[in-house]
Amino acid sequence: MEISVWNGTLVITAPSSLVSQGTASFHIQVCSEEDARHMGLSSFLRLYLGPLLRILGGFSPSTTLCPRVSRDETVSKYQLEKDDLRQDGTLRYKALLPGRDGKRSVFRICGLTELEIWDLGLEKVAMIRCLPLLGRFDLKAALVYDQKLNILPDEDPRSRHADIVGWPAEKDKTRSIAQVLAAEAVIRNRT
Q: Closest Cα to residue 44, out of 52, 36, 32?
């Protein structure tokens, strides 16, 4: 990949499966050259290059994930519905109940910056469902495992997607587990 600046425009030339020649150039006007100098290279790269490379399919944010979700990891359920929270700002347990397929979709956020966590929710959840991303609910994997549930990550670790599975067949037990998870979840609102 080559990165250059021409007349204040960032030019990125990278291998791509999107075009037949195998190389694509992207020209992005992000700021003036003077602004770029003040911004600093690391801030610039963090802000613009990461999301662009994810679009190209050649970049998965930071950490390589293990095939099994460790007890130390945090997983997030992204909030798309206002009704997930009560008037007092506490989480309703229904937001964490499994779907008809017996799974609760979550994302592994280990090793991501706050910006990357929000970008993940926008790209993988909100844009696909055509709904605004309102917030997220962070859960310690240990809490999920302590409820005798399991977290099954997708085969492709770059997706960062996982499902909470192993919910009991009895609705009362499922509700009770969801209440425990909701009480311990860390609520993060998107600002």
A: 36
